[in-house]
Amino acid sequence: MKFSLTSGLLAALAGLSSAASLTQVSNFGSNPSGARMYIYVPDRLASNPAIVTAVHYCTGTANAFYTGTPYARLADQHGFIVIYPESPNSGGCWDVSSQAAYTRNSGSNSHAIATMVNWAISQYGADRDRIFLAGTSSGAMMTNVLAATYPDLFKAASAYAGVPAGCFSTNSVAGWNSTCANGQSITTQEHWAQVAKNMYPGYDGPRPRMMIYHGSADSTIYPRNFNETMKQWAGVFGYTYGSPQQTLNNNPAAPYTKYVYGANLVGVYGTGVTHDIPVNGAHDMEWFGITGQPAASSSPAPVASSTTLATSTRAATSAAVTPTQPSGCTAARWAQCGGQGFSGCTVCASPYKCTFSNNWYSQCL
Ligand SMILES: *[C@@H]1O[C@H](CO)[C@@H](O)[C@H](O)[C@H]1NC(C)=O
Ligand SMILES: *[C@@H]1O[C@H](CO)[C@@H](O)[C@H](O)[C@H]1NC(C)=O
């Protein structure tokens, strides 16, 4: 009896020590499309924090993406804000198909998300140079649309199982374009680049660095969309789609192959991976420059050694470093404690337990 009371009290105290939770923001500015805004602000918010905008899949919700992806736990660890927009459309897909979606300040969902980000920047004094974007499926399509429509707002993006910006066009709000989904919208890198550039005509400032993830066994958004999306951003950044600078097998871990085009574009293609592609939070953190060295370096070498970047032992620069367990060390609460390619401490400080999140990420919780 005494024992269970004590452990109950400890559990309650542990709960109190992390008061942060997913919170809806109702008045973030003009919002004709009715998209909903949720935000996660960690207890230990960094000053001048970064923002990660995390965009859900069809049928998803802000809460589902909050609980089902690692971004909020990573925010606890690194002190950034996560914005979880929520689709107002029936079916829960984002509008990535109307002409308005591809037009700045049009009142559509893409405009609503940009408004949410601007609200959070001024509300929390966030760092305009560290505004990031990530999304899965419909959220990845929105990631590509936002990168094209608001290239001045975002610095880096990570898109899991999406399509090129403009590919899902139906001239209706939140329509479904089967030609694109089935991988039959095929064109040149020049044409795809023009489609993206037309979403902010005349703009020639900096654009977000793009990381594109896709699985070869995706039967919802066919894998050909990986190739077409790579063409689009290769064209925008002036790379040649057919000639990546580097092809890295088992990177960041099997079954993925990483195609490095340069500082602004990386593709990560998973053999046998379906539409249910896992978010690799640690890899996104590296790409955004929240951990390790930002991938946007003039040399491609840092990208090549992503497994070593996840740790502080950056002296080891070979991509083929064998992970070694530092002896006798413990990982703090919220810290990473496991995952393929991870070479840090795998024992958590008491009373936290190393908890499996996905093949690339376990965390002390
Ligand atoms: C689907 O998108 C493609 C471009 O990806 C476009 O050519 C086609 O007209 C669209 N289909 C519909 C039904 O709008
Ligand atoms: C698309 O890219 C993947 C990864 O590079 C490659 O394996 C596949 O052959 C490409 N598909 C086409 C049709 O080019």
Automatic annotation (TrEMBL):
Cellular compartments annotated: Secreted
Main subcellular location: secreted
Residue stretches in coiled coil: none
MF GO annotations: carboxylic ester hydrolase activity; cellulose binding
Keywords associated with the record: Carbohydrate metabolism, Hydrolase, Polysaccharide degradation, Secreted, Serine esterase, Signal
Domain CBM1: 329-365
SUPFAM superfamilies: alpha/beta-Hydrolases
Segment forming the signal sequence: 1-19
A Gene Ontology cellular-component term: extracellular region
Known EC number: 3.1.1.-
A GO BP entry: xylan catabolic process
InterPro entries: AB_hydrolase_fold (IPR029058), CBD (IPR000254), Esterase_phb (IPR010126), Plant_Biomass_Hydrol_Est (IPR050955)
Role this protein plays: Esterase involved in the hydrolysis of xylan, a major structural heterogeneous polysaccharide found in plant biomass representing the second most abundant polysaccharide in the biosphere, after cellulose.
Similarity comment text for this entry: Belongs to the carbohydrate esterase 1 (CE1) family.
Protein name (record): Carboxylic ester hydrolase
UniProt organism field: Podospora australis
